Model the fold of this input.
Amino acid sequence: MTAQPTDIATYNFAYLDEQTKRMIRRAILKGIAIPGYQVPFASREMPMPYGWGTGGVQVTASIIGPDDVLKVIDQGADDTTNAVSIRAFFKKVANVAVTTQTAKATIIQTRHRIPEHPLGAGQVLVYQVPIPEPLRFLEPRETETRKMHALEEYGLMHVKLYEDIARHGRIATTYAYPVKVEGRYVMDPSPTPKFDNPKMHRSPALQLFGAGREKRIYALPPFTEVVSLDFEDHPFEVQTFDQPCALCAAENVYLDEVILDDHGGHMFVCSDTDHCEKRREEGHRGHLAPETHLAPEKMEPTQ
Amino acid sequence: MTDEPLLRVSALSKFYGSRVGCENVTFDLWPGEVLAVVGESGSGKTTLLNCLSTRLLPSSGTASYRMRDGQFRELYRMSEAERRFLMRTDWGFVHQNPADGLRMTVSAGANVGERLMAVGDRHYGKIRATAVDWLSRVEIDEDRIDDEPRAFSGGMRQRLQIARNLVTGPRLVFMDEPTGGLDVSVQARLLDLLRGLVTDLCLAAIVVTHDLAVARLLSQRMMVMKDGRVVESGLTDRVLDDPRAPYTQLLVSSILQV
Done:
């Protein structure tokens, strides 16, 4: 790939050097060939701290091309620090087009959400993963967890769910909810809310997971079977909300609680900002939506 | 009862470099039989136990185990997956220190249920009912089911470890000093419990102990080891009442009288 004419000539296209991208692409290909299997890779230092998406950024940098359109979300939002800075980073080092619209993006890097708008074939979802090993907190030895994956010994994963029910009367895990991929590997879907787990199942988009600090890449090729673990008498359920989004009145979406004042005032709004804005443009109104067309961050204080 | 042994061990040796762990051990173990392995520290008892339970691979020799389908399988030729499966279904291993055999940070119920979940049980209600049943069989109150073993006394932890091992109905249990570190009254209750369970479930067991009284109470047959070799073996009562090898005589005469 030729370097783009930019003012930062010392950087290669998309920041990483071609050898590194080649190494990461190999890891990605292996991950796609063995869905759910954690492939070790030589994670590089990135110009951002661990925990801010170094894994996701390396994956994105390795697959992005000059014609791609990038969207970056952080907890569903396009306008938070992490999303804004990663988007700006790729705009600068790869000179690619960026968007906030799910349908228009070819690559979506995400921290902890899957967009509400259904993903299509040809789109790539890149997850930022803090801890790729679903068995980590149950079995601290990496040598042992690798063996357990190799031998398909996953009884321990259900021990965690058993503990949940024994303590809380139900499966209380709400995010990073373990899934079984193609009936073989148990995988951590990264700390997405379990609300998003069903969206991974047979998704037409390619899903890639990068964990920079832990130096692991794993993948779900399109149309992969992804089943959330559960008990026969305590089946898997997603979160439900007893009210629609306060701004766009959407139902059956994942909502965030937003504090409005110091007197306990709060509202529930879509965590997916793009989805929420689109619905408001279409004329949907929640009970707290402002009269005019204004994004929530531009709202005037009410008092 | 069948007329075939459960475990056949032939010329088993384990060397640590030039040092001898255990050497040339041969015996058969029959279904429902309890075999005690006694000897002083460093005599190779634990090495032998670890080799038999495939936690260690021996330097030479063979051991074959009669599977549930009646076929003998050579333990050291099985794949690791098969051995580990055997370990958590048809076998049990009771460690001297319960912390080695338990998950200290999950509840007692989950400790007992883990093996069931590992073999594919996916019904919470049934797993919990089985756990309650097993806790009562090892004399742990039902209301302790959601407590972590960290909150248990040494004797209770050991009983919990036994329940955790027996829940899948194993046919062979390995025990490494099961009563080590417990005071005498707790030891007596544990032995009583073990004796009852072994008889009720027709368990075969290999018990490693340095305590001849434990061997006398639990086992039908015993092997005396010294410096990695078996110096004497036979029926427990015979060995203890009429020891033949000089070392056994020394061992028996060293028992403290109260």
Notes: The first strand of chain A starts at residue 39 and ends at 40.
